[in-house]
Amino acid sequence: MTEKETRTRQPNGASSIYLGKDGKWHGRVTVGVRDDGKPDRRHVERKTKAEVTKAVRELEKQRDSGTVRKPGKPWTVKMWLSHWIENIAKPSVSENSYDGYEVAVRVHLIPGLGAHRIDRLEPEHLERFYRKMQDRGSKPATAHQAHRTMRTALGEAVRRGHITVNPAEIAKAPRLEEDEIEPYTVDEVQSLLLEAAKRPNSARWVLALGLGLRQGEALGLKWEDVDLEAGYIRTRKNRLRPKYAHGCGDTCGRKPGYCPERRQIRRETKPTKSRAGRRTIGLPDELVKLLCKHKEAQDRQRNEAADGWSEKGYVFTKPDGEPLIPNTDYHEWKKLLADAGVRDGRLHDARHTAGTVLLLLGVPDRIVDAIMGWEPGGAARMRARYMHVTDPMLKRVAKQVGNALWGAPDDGDSPEQGPDEGD
């Protein structure tokens, strides 16, 4: 059979299948129009007519469903991630999100997967890579961050037609085991507050332990967001980690953050990322009094600093009026724990403690959600994550069960059951 006999004229735009001079079967499928206006006609070749027919039908199916990969040189993982992180992610995500993505791309994903073509990347490639990361000493959370970054980056590649399936959506993510978090007891909180009272910005720790403010919310708080007469604060801004560039032309031989002439290249704060985060919180009378004293102390500090004071309106500041740096604040928390003789814990554990206190006090769920700044859709999950069953609660429930089963006399310690709590 000759090529002429096997390659008959097809209508414009129709697929064709023919036997070539090389002895292989070829198929051509028009899948759309290229950027220059010419037909985008794809070519496949196989050893048998049945195989090429199957390939042609699959390409037609992709064309009809709109999932055909765009024409041009295929992207490698390195090429795509480098393009995505700088040209797509950087202009559109927050500074903190970008930092997380950039580290995952530069430190892990490009060195480990960069040579793969994105249209040939398989879920198994990713799963083996995550295991290798952990075998080399990376924490599960680090491998999970790499997975989330790859899933986001390849999701954008799918949306733009560079690939048809996102393998990171199929790959099993590294398993994350949440650490068991034990909130601080009342005695521990009191010890922390007694020690904090000896330090500048002591109210900063009361806001964390009593109202559950996140670090960025507390450090980004300004006096314009505080109404001491009405007794409330508004959380509207988050403090960002500083980022510096050389001011010496990169001649000092140090990292940008240690350059004697360093320049700040990141804004100090950003708006809270959700409507629930922009919230109004009522202040206990004791905290109002503490903030009033804090304001008076700051006024004295401003007068003493004179021209050396940078007036930016922050509630919690360094001695020159500049906002506190998150990293410095973190180390201050660790020092506070040690000096108070309280067990070590994350700064975020103060927020867990506040959630537990609200639960113990029986505060209604919707009020808890408003105080903690949780979105309505995920509030129940967040309550389960942040609020912990403590010993007093277990004892109270055990007493209630004993009363119900054995008729033990009520000594008045158990709370009175409301009319809608019988179930």
From TrEMBL:
InterPro entries: CB (IPR044068), DNA_brk_join_enz (IPR011010), Integrase-like_cat_sf (IPR013762), Integrase_catalytic (IPR002104), Integrase_recombinase_N (IPR010998), Integrase_SAM-like_N (IPR004107), Tyrosine_recombinase_XerCD (IPR050090)
Domain Tyr recombinase: 179-399
Domain called Core-binding (CB): residue spans: 75-158
Pfam hit, one: Phage_integrase
Alphabetized UniProt keyword annotations: DNA integration, DNA recombination, DNA-binding
Region Disordered, annotated ranges: 1-21, 29-48, 404-423
Name of the protein described by the UniProt record: Site-specific integrase
Gene3D superfamilies documented for this protein: 1.10.150.130, Intergrase catalytic core
CDD domains from the UniProt entry: INT_ICEBs1_C_like
Coiled-coil residues: none
The species this protein was found in: Wenjunlia tyrosinilytica
GO molecular function terms attached to this record: DNA binding
Biased composition range(s): Basic and acidic residues: 33-48
KW DNA-binding (keyword) present: yes
Domain of life: Bacteria
GO BP: any one term: DNA recombination
Compositional bias (Acidic residues): 410-423
